[in-house]
Each structure stands twice: as C-alpha cells, then as structure tokens.
Amino acid sequence: ILNLSFIFFLLTGGSLTKLAYYSTVQHKVARVRSFDHSGKDIENEPLYEISVQEEITARLHFIKFENTYIETCLDFIKDHLVNTETKVIKATGGGAYKFKDLIEKKLGLKVDKEDVMTCLIKGCNFVLRNIPHEVFAYQKDSDTEFRFQTNHPNIFPYLLVNIGSGVSIVKVETEDKFEWIGGSSIGGGTFWGLGALLTKTKKFDELLQLASKGQHTNVDMLVKDVYGGAYQTLGLSGNLIASSFGKSTTADKDFSLEKQSSPKAHLMVVTGRLIPALLQFYRIDDTFFFFFSPHLRTIQLQCFILWQGEVQALFLRHEGYLGAIGAFLKGAEQDNPNQYSWGENYAGSSGLMSTSPDVYPMQRTRSGTFDMLEMDRLERPLVNLPLLKDPSTYIPDTVDLTDDAMARKYWLTCFEEALDGVAKRAAASQPDSIDALQRAEKFRQKYWNKLQTLRQQPFAYGTLTVRSLLDTREHCLNEFNFPDPYSKVKQKENGIALKCFQSVIESLDSLGWEERQFALVKGLLAGNVFDWGAKAVSDPEYVGFLLQEGPPHKCALIFADNSGIDIILGVFPFVRELLSRGTEVILACNSGPALNDVTYSESLIVTERIAAMDPVIQSALREEKLLLVQTGSSSPCLDLSRLDKGLAVLVRERKTDLVIIEGMGRAIHTNYYAALKCESLKLAVIKNSWLADRLGGKIFSVIFKYEVPCK
C-alpha cells in the first residue's frame, strides 16, 4: 500500500523531466514475541509467537521521462501528490523557467526554483554515499561494457563534468563547498545543432543512433593519417584525432548520414583534453561525468577513446536523477535526509541500459520514455566495519558474475530453477491468506523478468553477484508482502534445538580440552553434512588456531548464520567456550529476515531461553560480557562496508580483536577474500558442487579459514 506524501519536487530539463517525490509505504513485516510461559508446561508449546504486522517506511521515488509527457506528469502530481498543505513545488534546471507558467496554472502552486548546480552536487554526494555500485568506467572492446568501482569512504575531492548544452567543470571539495573551474561551449547542443544542419535530423536520439552506426575515422583525420603512425617524439598515439572532419575536404565522394554523425560526437568531447590537466593541477583522483540524455553512452565511449588511458573517466548509473535528488534534499533539509542511510529497491527500479542498440531493444526503448529509481530509508545508519584493513579496496563479493560469463550462466539458471520452489514456500507461509497464491505468482513473474533482464544486461544494477541476486529476490518477496516465508520453519527448528542444548553442553564439558576444541568446531558446522577430511580443515595451521592455550582474545565479534541447530547447538557452545576463557562476545544477527537466517529479534528470545538453562550465558548477559546486536542487514550475505552504526561503535569500544564469520552466504559468497586488521575465522560447508569445484574442493567440503593480519 502506497501513501503518497505532499512532499515532492520536480526537475525539468531541456529534453527530459525528472519527478522526485517522497512517500510512506505500508507493508507487512514478521514480528516475533516471547510467550508468557510462567506456570505452564511448555514442553509442547511453540518457542515464541509469530505475527505479521503493518509497518510504515519512507521511500523516495524518482521518475524520468521525455518532456512530451509533461502534461501527463502534471496530471499525476495533481491527482496523487498535491494536498491542501502543499503551497510550493520545487523545480530546477532549464525547464524550471520553460514550464513555470504551465506548472503554476495546472497545479495552482507557486514554483520555487533551486540552483541547478547545487542540486546536481547534492544528488551526486547522496548516491555516492548510499548506492555501493553507483560508479563505473566504460570498457572499450570488452565483453563487459561497464566496470563498477568500489565507493571510497571519503568521496571528496572530485571533479564533476556536466555535459549538457555546453560543458561545465566543477571542483567539489566538501558537501557544500564547490567551485566552477572550467568549461566549454562545445557540448551536447553542439552535437545536436550540427547534426540538425548536416543531416536534417532534428531528433537527438536519432542522431545518436546514426553516430553509433558510423565510423568517425572515415571523416576525422588521425595522427597516423598525418605521420603514417604514432608520433613518437611527442608520445602521440596514431589513433588520436589530429583534425575533426579533416578528411571531408579531400574526399571525392559524399558521406552517409552515419559517417557525418559519428565525428560530431567526437568533436563534442574534444573538451575532454582539459580534464587531465585540471586533475593534475588540482591533485584530484576522481572525475565523474554526467550527461543530459540517458542515451549519451555513445559519448562515454568517445571520452574513453580520446584520452587513451590518460585519465579514467567515471560515470554513474543514476546520473539522470542527480538534479532531482538534489532538489528533494534541498526542500527536505528540515528533516535532514542525510542523517539516514538509504538503499536501492531493486524490485521497483529500472536498471542501467546497454550502449548497444541491439541489446534488449524493447526495454531500451521503454527506458528512454519512462525510467524509475526507488530508494528505501533504512531503519539505522550504516557504516564501515572499523576492522576492515582498507575500506577503499574492500570488495564483499567473491565472484563477479558480470565479468565471468560461465559463472553468470550457471547462477542465473540456478535461481531460475529454484524460483517455483520459492514461490510455493512463500504461498505456504501464509495459509490463511485468500490471495497468497496470486501474490506468490506475481512475485514469481516479477523475479523471473528481473533474471531475464540480467541475462541480457548483467550490469543493470551494478556488479552482478550471488549476493545481488539473493537481495533482488528478497526485495521482490517484500514487494508482494511475503516478509518472512521461513518464519514457521525457524520457529520449529529453534524449539527442537533448544531441547537438545543441555545435553550437548554436558557432552562437551565431559571432554578433554583438545578434544573439546575439535568438537566445538564441528558444532559450528552443525546441521550440515560435511567432509571433515577436506584440505582446508586438515591443514594444521588452521586447526592450530583453536589449539593455542595462549592469552584469550579481548573481544570476539561473531556474525551468525542460520536459525535452529546452527546458532543454538553450534554457535552458542562456541560462545560459551570463549566466555569461559575470559573473552567478551558480540553476537551479530540480521536486522530483518532472509531465508532461514536467524534475526536479531529471534536471537533475543533464543538467548533468553539458553540463559535460563546455562549459568555461563546468564552471567555473561548480566555482566554485559555477551552482547547481542543487529547487523543492519536483511540479506543472506554480508557487506562489511554497510553495517549498523551501533555495531561499529561497540566494536571500537570493546577493542574487538577476533572476527568470526560463518555460513556460505557470509563467508564464501562474500568476504572469502576480505582482509581485516585483526585475527579472523571464516568457516562454512560448501553445499554447491559448482562452487566447490571453482574453489578446488568437493561438495560438502569444509572451509575453515583462519587468518592473522600481516604486521
């Protein structure tokens, strides 16, 4: 259920309109609450009560479409967004002047114009902070068109190159400090104007189509045309343009429209030669480029060709929304949206499109007239784990499916084959709902369509990984009100495991020290069938970690995985052993549900029941030597660069010197190569034959990876 808010902002440009508005979204969430078991025989009672409740969350919507639909846009605003409290509508860009009278007449509101560059920079800062795979570089002659970059924690300073009708180059130093340092009159308007004069084609998109088909070297004179090759004395590549349109003066034949259009695209970005000098002068590493049309990927290619590796041009997936986002942030300053973290909702967002007109043409055409981005406000601010060795180079994911065609084909097929089962599980989780089957089918169709898009355009939502496929599935489940399909399964498994807890502890306590360490490690992998003889486990350097009777660690941070046997009979006995050695423990669980992973709220109930049975856990809770926290995530995987701020503060305060990450999603699909400042232990059972083979093992092999940072 979507309740549209009266807070909204409009950005209108030369050819495109971008609508930005804030709404509150009402959706279902699964809640757990402990039963009052006092004075009752609880042997056959459920461990806790599960309820599905309505929750209100904030969502930002950004819609982009051609100006020919401006009247339709205003009708939408009038019917859905304007209420009696609305007096002013925010607007920025050239259209704020062009359409001012139309907007005020149609909506009966005053247009409040915002500075376009201020809005653009605010929007840029916002997406750089909140969308991990926002930045990419164009890769010429590569199977993968786009190479996504890791967002650096400190985004300043950078150069912003805004290519609209002309070109503006701005140095951005802080959130609010920036200055114009250069520009050019040769920009998009130049390309459009010359194209209209030479080809009689008035439509911008048609000119780009012509340019993409043409070959500029038939018209432009290159260095090698002048010198017969590279000009080594000056270090000039033979493929650099020596003279735009230089060959047209000596040609003895007419050039096609395509051949005329291509060199104009190159001419437009001659300004790019300014960039390396400015970067060097101002000692800035990053340059971000923004274009006034979503189809100007052709020009990205020209930038890449022109600079021949001198500078890496960086672009953003959502460059078309930056002004609209900035206008929203300006208008909502009293609510301080930047105090929150936001996340892209894959279920409601259009993806980045291919530069090739031959790739998925139907969706490409649709994107040109109607494009969307949705961002949800997260409950808690997210930050880096303080123990990351180098946050600027940290990459959560083990396999990049965007780059690896074989891996991509395998995993997309896996998710397709599993889809029917997931839909059935979702419907079965709500047996009392009369429309559960219909909603499950809508989920199935939505996620199937997403998978087909990713087959054609694996870069649509940034770097494609197993994590992003899982997260997209969770977003689609939530869209159709399936907040926790495994809630009943987890409830049952937690109850069964708790009944075995005391006997497991008694058995462990009866063992000698060394034997108990091996048993504890096996218990950490409880609930999985595994081959204990796998190389990663039999190697003495890994097992030695648990055999050292040296001084205890000060504090251990444990990222838990599954409910039931895993956390109760695997993690908690290990936690108990650490506590007995004098090590404090921070136990981190998901903030929200994902598959059968234990959530923070479930862990509170489970821990309460364990404490009632075990004095070691009870004492640790009372003395705050065992602390339960939430990760800020609702994913089966783990991104250590986006964790709950409260968790990060606790890690610093307790001087954490050991991190333990368990499970396939958190320790193999993500963080397998993560480098930390302290000792770490990553362990999981490989339950996928393809992945086992890729890592050099067999299915059900065990990963037990103990790492000590280099000093």
TrEMBL record:
- Tell whether Metal-binding is among the UniProt keywords: yes
Q: Name one GO biological process term.
A: coenzyme A biosynthetic process
Q: Which GO terms describe its cellular component?
A: cytosol; nucleus
One Pfam entry name: ARMT1-like_dom
Superkingdom of origin: Eukaryota
Q: Which residues form a coiled coil?
A: none
Instruction: Give residue ranges for domain Damage-control phosphatase ARMT1-like metal-binding.
Output: 414-536, 549-697
Q: Which cofactors are named for this entry?
A: Mn(2+); Ni(2+)
GO MF: ATP binding; hydrolase activity; metal ion binding; pantothenate kinase activity
> Per its UniProt record, what CDD domains does this chain match?
ASKHA_NBD_PanK-II_Pank4
Q: Which residues form the signal peptide?
A: 1-17
Q: Which reaction does it catalyse?
A: (R)-4'-phospho-S-sulfopantetheine + H2O = (R)-S-sulfopantetheine + phosphate
Entry keyword annotation includes DNA repair:
no
Query: What are the record keywords, sorted?
Result: ATP-binding, Coenzyme A biosynthesis, Hydrolase, Manganese, Metal-binding, Nickel, Nitration, Nucleotide-binding, Signal
How does this polypeptide assemble, per the annotation? Homodimer. Interacts with PKM.
For this protein, the record's NCBIfam families field holds: panK_eukar
> Its function?
Phosphatase which shows a preference for 4'-phosphopantetheine and its oxidatively damaged forms (sulfonate or S-sulfonate), providing strong indirect evidence that the phosphatase activity pre-empts damage in the coenzyme A (CoA) pathway. Hydrolyzing excess 4'-phosphopantetheine could constitute a directed overflow mechanism to prevent its oxidation to the S-sulfonate, sulfonate, or other forms. Hydrolyzing 4'-phosphopantetheine sulfonate or S-sulfonate would forestall their conversion to inactive forms of CoA and acyl carrier protein.
Q: Which PANTHER family match?
A: 4'-PHOSPHOPANTETHEINE PHOSPHATASE (PTHR12280:SF20), PANTOTHENATE KINASE (PTHR12280)
Q: Spell out the protein name for this chain.
A: 4'-phosphopantetheine phosphatase
Q: What gene name is given for the protein in this entry?
A: PANK4
